[in-house]
Amino acid sequence: MKPDHTKATTAAVNRWLIIFATLLLALPVVVSANEQDEAYAALRAQDMRLASVAERMLAANAPLCRRTMPLTGMILHSED
């Protein structure tokens, strides 16, 4: 049978190990948040470029259409 102070020390060490492991698991999330911000900024820039090209194409081809509709201003993507 272990003395009481050994059990208390083991419990304290276990608590610190759990806290340390939790902090280590959370660290990549903080680091990847900055990378995600940069990735989203690049994606937004590409989306705006695509939308501006599409807007110019729609405006240039409008005279070729029999019926026209007002634009919503939303950017919609599809695979086709």
Which of globular, elongated, flat, extended, rod-shaped describes the shape? rod-shaped
Tell me the number of helical segments per DSSP (H or I, 4 or more residues long). 1
Q: How many angstroms does the end-to-end distance come to?
A: 71 Å
Q: Major beta sheet, specifics?
A: none
Question: Can you describe what's shown?
Answer:
- With 80 residues, the protein is an all-alpha fold.
- The protein has one domain (4-62).
- The chain has one helix and no strands.
- It is rod-shaped.
- The model has no long low-confidence stretch (mean pLDDT 77).
Task: Give a quick summary of the entry.
By secondary structure, the chain is mainly alpha-helical.
Q: What attributes characterize this protein structure?
A:
rod-shaped, 80 residues, single chain, mainly alpha, 1 helix
Ordered list of secondary-structure elements with their pairings:
Elements: H1 4-61
